[in-house]
Request: fold
Amino acid sequence: MTDEHIALSPAQVLQVRHQSAEALELESIWQPGEPPPRHWHPHQREEFEVLEGELTVEPGRAEPRVLGVGQRVTIAPRTPHRMWNAGPGQARASWRITPPQRTLEQFRFMAQGTALPRAMRMLWAFRNEFRVGPVL
Reply:
């Protein structure tokens, strides 16, 4: 476990738990907020387990659903999705990304700001890890 914390936004902070060639393991805390843009990962699988509070997840073309403590969701590669805390209190989840590719580097980049034109640089630099919008 590391002590590295990464603030992706005012509503989301990550703690890096473990990184290897096989997986990136994180714990994420979400404050109540609005849904992020739908995005997808060309080659990565994500697994989430809610540890505290409730998270709303919108995987693929499915309707949004609320996950409570102990519930899990797996997002397959190339599946558009988004996840956020629509509840009144803090939410916390474990998060596993396989393979990790350059995702930790991407998170560090995002923590430095995502306003234009920096956001465009991020989308290009990490296009193998992260895409916004529908799958093309």
Summary: The helical segments are 103-111, 118-125. The chain has a mean pLDDT of 96. Residues 5-132 form a domain with the Jelly Rolls fold (CATH 2.60.120.10).
